[in-house]
Design a protein that fits this description.
Metallo-beta-lactamase, Chain A; alpha+beta; 12 strands; single chain; 5-stranded mixed beta sheet; globular
Length: 189
């Protein structure tokens, strides 16, 4: 059954430390099944098992969105052989490269890309209109705790502007390397 509004599922929550894994999410939307940031994980099963449990196979995935081009967010793109891939400046499908800005691009009804540079110059955020409010899938935060100052940010001022933009509208944030959270006054700006 296709949802009237998109539904977001976290397939696996990421982490950083001696080992690193990205948070990998699935968005069920009208006519689209979207995976966000299929990057480094302890095993591919931590992506695929929850996908199967939700009643989907890798072949069902129509789109993959990568927040930025670091391997810890991209290394498992090939798990989804039928998917178009979206990044900061194009959509890729088989041998077709379609250039377009990410800002305002609708991957599906209720699923829009925003340009949110800071961690890298090419970072994007996937904004999803769910029944309970807007969910932002983003690398503006690694986890609920920030870090307040991203030690790898190429443009800290832009990162903080992106955070302000997301915090103005998002009821839920799915960060690059942690569990989803509801932003509050303690969320790093």
């Amino acid at each position: 059954m296709v949802p009237a509004m998109p539904n977001v599922h976290v397939l696996t929550s990421g982490y950083v430390g001696p080992r690193t894994a990205s948070t990998v999410s699935l968005i069920e939307a009208t006519a689209r099944l979207i995976v966000v940031d299929p990057g480094m994980v302890s095993s591919r099963a931590v992506i695929l098992d929850p996908l199967f449990a939700l009643g989907h196979s890798p072949d069902d995935v129509t789109d993959v969105v990568i927040s930025h081009h670091h391997p810890d967010h991209t290394i498992n793109i090939a798990l989804f052989p039928n998917a178009r891939v979206h990044d900061h400046w194009a959509t890729y499908e088989n041998d077709l490269w379609t250039s377009r800005p990410a800002e305002g691009f609708d991957v599906a009804d209720g699923v829009t890309l925003w340009e949110t540079p800071g961690h890298t110059p090419q970072d994007i955020t996937t904004v999803v209109e769910e029944t309970g409010g807007l969910t932002a899938l983003t690398h503006l935060w690694w986890s609920a705790g920030g870090p307040e100052k991203d030690p790898f940010a190429t443009d800290p001022a832009a990162l903080h502007q992106g955070r302000e933009r997301v915090l103005a509208v998002a009821s839920t944030v799915i960060p690059g390397h942690g569990e989803m959270f509801q932003p509050d006054d303690g969320t790093p700006h």
